[in-house]
Amino acid sequence: MTGPDVDRFLADAEQAWPSDALASIVATIRSAGPFNEAIKWGHPYFSLNDRAVLKLYVARTWINVFYYRGAELKDPDVLLTGDGPSGMRRLRIYRDEDVPLGLIDRLTRAAVALEIASEPNQDCTVNRC
To answer: Does residue 93 contact residue 100 with C-beta atoms inside 8 Å?
Structure first.
């Protein structure tokens, strides 16, 4: 479900950077799952079944895509950074870099699958979890 607050956030990003990059990133995230969207802590936040999946943090020269359970995602090229007990990991995209939309799509879909698989009411015999 798209969120009017996230749409307003995108509309308020007036400069080409980060506006174009943000629009592409949010469109990719939206295509990867049935998220609830909000603005929390001043930045776009995406949840599924009332559980945080990812958030964006926008700075002057970079955008972070934070995956709340990023430590559990397959990351063979070690592109997600961060450590610590929370399990949150980030993908940092710098202003002069191409936005890795394919990677964001893959990671976001994996994060959605991880959340769905951990649902307490899931019938594991049908879904083979």
So the answer is: yes
- 6-14: Cβ within 8 A, 24+ apart: 6/37, 6/38, 6/39, 6/44, 8/39, 9/39, 9/43, 9/44, 13/58
pTM for the complete prediction?
0.87
DSSP state of 15: S
Residue keyed to tokens 């934070």: 66
48 and 128 in contact (C-beta within 8 Å)? Answer: no
Q: Is residue 57 within 8 Å of residue 63, measured between CB atoms?
A: yes
Angle, to 10 degrees, between the axis of helix 4-12 and the axis of helix 16-32? 160
- The residue among 37 and 14 whose pLDDT is bigger is 37
Residue appearing with tokens 């956030």 = 9
pLDDT in tens, 23-40: 999 999 999 999 999 999
Domains of the chain are: 4-116 (3.90.1150.200)
Residue 2: its pLDDT value, please? 64
